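Q: How would the structure tokens look for this protein?
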Amino acid sequence: MAPIVHEFDWPDRFVVGTVGVPGARTFFLQARDGQRVVSVSVEKEQSFALAEKIDEVLDELMTEDGNPYSIPALADEALVDEDPLDTPIDEAFRAGAMSLGWDPATGQVVIEAFPIVEVEVESLEELDEIIDLPESLPEQVMQVRIPVGAARAFTKRTRDVVASGRPICSLCGLPMDEGHVCELPDGFR
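A: Here is the predicted structure in token form.
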């Protein structure tokens, strides 16, 4: 069966947002085009890594002679979406793998999210057989194509959302909860 592709080309909105309180938040990639909204749950680390990689791709493209795609160095504040996620939030799937690409013909960043696929295998040979089967295709895929200005705005918002969680302890590097106690490195008392 062919996968359901949630395709968004120049969506009205594409953001990372959260539901819940710091320490117990669920992160979502959410795309909207008109009345159609698709939400995919992601890990906090996936969100941050996606923002990092998008910025890396855009920074690299900026170094091309003459910056042929007019890639901005920073996000245009007017494009940064600070609104909460659209509700109701109906999770289409939980993202496992994600891919990032660049379409030079349209000057768009292409983001794809694929669901976690769980399989039980008893040997590596069995895993190879499962991977080669057409049935191993994901049931759903989210594909979003956004222009460079929207991509910079996406990365700014994503970094802000990730940073709005629990503060990080400067000594141990772990999130600080109420009553946080950490092990001090040797030499500190």
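Residues 44-62 form the longest helix (19 residues).

The beta strands are 4-9, 13-19, 26-33, 36-42, 91-103, 108-115, 140-147.

Upvote if useful.
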